Amino acid sequence: MPTLTKLYTLEEASQHNTSEDCWITIDGKVYDVSSYLDEHPGGDDVILGATGNFSISIHNTIKSLPTQFPDTANRLSMELYLSGFTLFLSKGKDATDEFEDAGHSKTARELLETFCIGELEETTTPIPELEIVSKKQQLNNLPQKFFNLSKQYWFAPITVVGLSVGLGYLYLRKKQAI
Ligand code: HEM
């Protein structure tokens, strides 16, 4: 039997990301929650933040901060690349984690179903449009890494020099005593 469910790609759903026209995708389904934004007890901003706007995850070795910069994506990607960060830029975002993390009640889940307009195409996955994780990045950062290491292990050369001076002194004293 042919399915009557309308299918969307994640990228298509991601175009609807404003307070007048807001779609979110949860568990493979697509919801048009535009009319519910103003009524949402958790505020409209959290739902808008879970839409498929450009989403950028920035990582370096010490911290990871997912954030959103819709307009400045290209400039930012270049700047971050140069400063040695790893950057993932994806167009299209799934809101399942945000929805689940808020601990919504059964009533909220039932209400959600009333806004369902279709499902995601099965092949749809968040596509990283730009992924900068390369060996080149590590090579570019060699001087910085060396600097970081020397900051971390500054005591090692001082210990070696100290030990050499001490041993030399003891050796000379012993030699003089003979
Ligand atoms: C996906 C992004 C969403 C996030 C991050 C989110 C977050 C939240 C948060 C933080 C609250 C608690 C507000 C408070 O008690 O101060 C809340 C409550 C609620 N939300 Fe959402 N929400 C989202 C989407 C939705 C959607 C799509 C619906 C329904 C169409 C919905 C329905 C409700 C309802 C009914 C409540 C009241 C408490 C409950 O019954 O669980 N939310 N939400």
UniProtKB/TrEMBL annotation:
Q: Which GO terms describe its molecular function?
A: heme binding; metal ion binding
Task: List, alphabetically, the Gene3D superfamilies matched.
Answer: Cytochrome b5-like heme/steroid binding domain
Enumerate the transmembrane spans.
153-172
Cytochrome b5 heme-binding domain sequence ranges: 5-121
The record's keywords, sorted A to Z, are: Heme, Iron, Membrane, Metal-binding, Transmembrane, Transmembrane helix
Q: Kindly give the PROSITE patterns that the UniProt entry links to this protein.
A: CYTOCHROME_B5_1, CYTOCHROME_B5_2
Has UniProt tagged this entry with the keyword Transmembrane helix? Answer: yes
Database matches in InterPro entries: Cyt_B5-like_heme/steroid-bd, Cyt_B5-like_heme/steroid_sf, Cyt_B5_heme-BS, Cytochrome_b5
Family statement: Belongs to the cytochrome b5 family.
**Name of protein:** Cytochrome b5 isoform A, variant 2
Q: Which organism is it from?
A: Salvia divinorum (Maria pastora)
